[in-house]
């Protein structure tokens, strides 16, 4: 539950502002390396609000497949990312970490990780 770095929060915010595919892949690679270096649980990806504008409302970052997928509000989000969709609608969280064991860890804009009950 260690605080996430400012660099990590900023890198994830760049996903919507980076139009160059190779630059986006570099950001995703850096994020993946960041999580591997900290030796926590096995992270599958993140889910966060999308700032591209209509029709998109949120997006997933699949760190296993290096995929960014933007979702319109009417689209169905697949499991396990679907569990995080309600949380990202809150301004309280910058993104939600999704781990292979099903754990969701909401992260506030200042990098504070929140322990979910359960």
List the helices and strands and how they pair.
Blueprint: H1 6-13, H2 21-38, E1 43-49, E2 56-62, E3 67-72, H3 85-88, E4 95-99, E5 104-107
What this model shows, in words?
The chain has a 5-stranded antiparallel sheet. It has helices spanning 6-13, 21-38, 85-88; strands at residues 43-49, 56-62, 67-72, 95-99, 104-107. Strand 2 and strand 3 form a beta hairpin. The protein contains 3 helices and 5 strands, in the order ααβββαββ. 25% of the residues lie in helices and 25% in strands. It has 118 residues and is α+β, with helices and mostly antiparallel strands. 25% of the residues are buried. The model has no long low-confidence stretch (mean pLDDT 88). It has one domain.
Concise account of the structure shown:
The protein has three helices and five strands, in the order ααβββαββ. It has helices at 6-13, 21-38, 85-88; strands at residues 43-49, 56-62, 67-72, 95-99, 104-107.
- Helices, by number, come to 3
| Share in β-strands | 15-25%
Mean of all residue-level pLDDT scores: 88
Helix content: 25-40%
Structural class: alpha+beta
Count of domains: 1
* Number of extended strands: 5
The succession of helices and strands, N to C, reads HHEEEHEE
Radius of gyration: 13 Å
* Largest sheet properties: 5 strands, antiparallel
Major sheet strand order? 3-2-1-4-5
Shape estimate: globular
Q: What is the first-to-last residue Cα distance?
A: 15 Å
Q: Runs with pLDDT <50, length 5+? A: none
